[in-house]
Amino acid sequence: MPSSDINAFHDLLRSSKNIIAVAGAGLSAASGIPTFRGAGGMWRKYNAMSLATPEGFSKNPSLVWQFYHYRREAALKAQPNPAHIALSSFSLPSIRHQIAPESTFTLITQNVDGLSPPAADEQPRLIEIHGRLFDVLCTSRDCDHVEFNTSSPICEGLAGTEAHVAAGDLDPEIPITSLPRCAKCGSLARPGVVWFGEMPHKLDEIDEIAAKADLCLVVGTSSTARPSTCYAAEVQDRGGKVAVFNLDRSKGDRDADYLFLGPCEETLPRALGLTN
């Protein structure tokens, strides 16, 4: 059975040299960002295949853009919670080396909300494996322009539609000409997130980092879900340790070395030695 001994975990941190964290939707839950697979999750209300696949976008870009406009508006209103801030602080060598001397740290987040902030003026190793909500991609193969856009609303045609999404009443009738367009060539644009069936970002870089890790923190995501299960298992196979921070038990956490249950905005700052 996994341990919940906080003092033993602090000892482990002090001896760890290459630390990675794999974060999921539970990290942002306290910031008001809806989760997807848990109780009340978005995929229990909507069909993921119609709203988060290239095929769904091709069939009905209006529905897809309404859904992602809703998510953009929610993310724009949200603020980083103490778990985000704890990971950001831990990424600073000046802070981390007091807790885990001479260690490295990389945050691999599955979240697309942009709430994992850079720490001060330093650049933490942050990999947004599923892209970003505020990236807007041109759909024309002759263009492929990418633009970071935090406009609210992103276009007038989507203004106010977030209320329909929240109510489970998406309107399929918004004309394609009223949806977001590429700022460079004028073609239809799409959200800059990785959809089901698409390749996550920077997998080769993550593989190199994970191959050296001796401690994997799994934060706010089921330890049975990819990629957390892959990287956590890889670390353990080489003799490293895995610590899971989740609100509830999940099927895969029985294999963890440490398990801290509860809101990660409470458990994570304490486990990382940032609060008492």
Task: Please describe the topology of this protein.
Layout: H1 6-15, E1 18-23, H2 42-45, H3 48-51, H4 54-59, H5 61-77, H6 82-90, H7 93-99, E2 104-109, E3 125-128, E4 131-138, E5 146-148, H8 162-166, E6 189-193, H9 203-210, E7 215-219, H10 228-237, E8 241-246, E9 258-261, H11 264-271
Parallel strand pairs: 1-2, 1-7, 2-3, 7-8, 8-9
Antiparallel strand pairs: 4-5, 4-6
Helix pairs in contact: 6-11
Write structural notes for this entry.
- Its cofactor is Zn(2+).
- Zn(2+) binds at residues 138, 143, 182, 185.
- It comes from Laccaria bicolor (strain S238N-H82 / ATCC MYA-4686) (Bicoloured deceiver).
- Keywords: Metal-binding, Mitochondrion, NAD, Transferase, Zinc.
- This is NAD-dependent protein deacylase.
- There is one protein chain.
- The protein is an alpha/beta fold and 276 residues long.
- The protein folds into 2 domains: 1-33 and 80-130 and 200-275, TPP-binding domain (Rossmann fold), CATH 3.40.50.1220; 35-77 and 131-193, SIR2/SIRT2 'Small Domain' (2-Layer Sandwich).
- 32% of the residues lie in helices and 17% in strands.
- The chain contains 11 helices and 9 strands.
- The chain has helices at residues 6-15, 42-45, 48-51, 54-59, 61-77, 82-90, 93-99, 162-166, 203-210, 228-237, 264-271, and strands at residues 18-23, 104-109, 125-128, 131-138, 146-148, 189-193, 215-219, 241-246, 258-261.
- Strands 3-2-1-7-8-9 form a 6-stranded parallel beta sheet, sandwiched between helices. A 3-stranded antiparallel beta sheet has the order 5-4-6.
- β4 and β5 form a beta hairpin.
- α6 runs parallel beside α11 (264-271).
